[in-house]
Description:
By secondary structure, this protein is mainly α. Helix content is 68%, strand content 0%.
Amino acid sequence: MEKRKKQYSEEFKHDAVNYYYSSGKSMKDAxxxxxxxxxxLNNWIQSAKSNGGIVEHRGSGNYSSDAEKEIARLKKELRxxxxxxxxxxxxxxxxxxx
Length: 98
């Protein structure tokens, strides 16, 4: 089963970065307090450092252009087709064993 990534709001990411800096705690302890992974917190901190204190955020379904939206849709469609093809290959393999 595929594990879905949790999506956090821009405000939460910004607050998490501020919490890390104001708490004086280690990244792991701050992440544990916020119930997020240390790697996520680190990514947000790095993003804030490189963007003048602003954490880059792109919510689910927010695309900068119609072309990007179409590309995302086509990638999803391709993944679905590849999954279906894998299932058919496995079924053919099972049927050929008999």
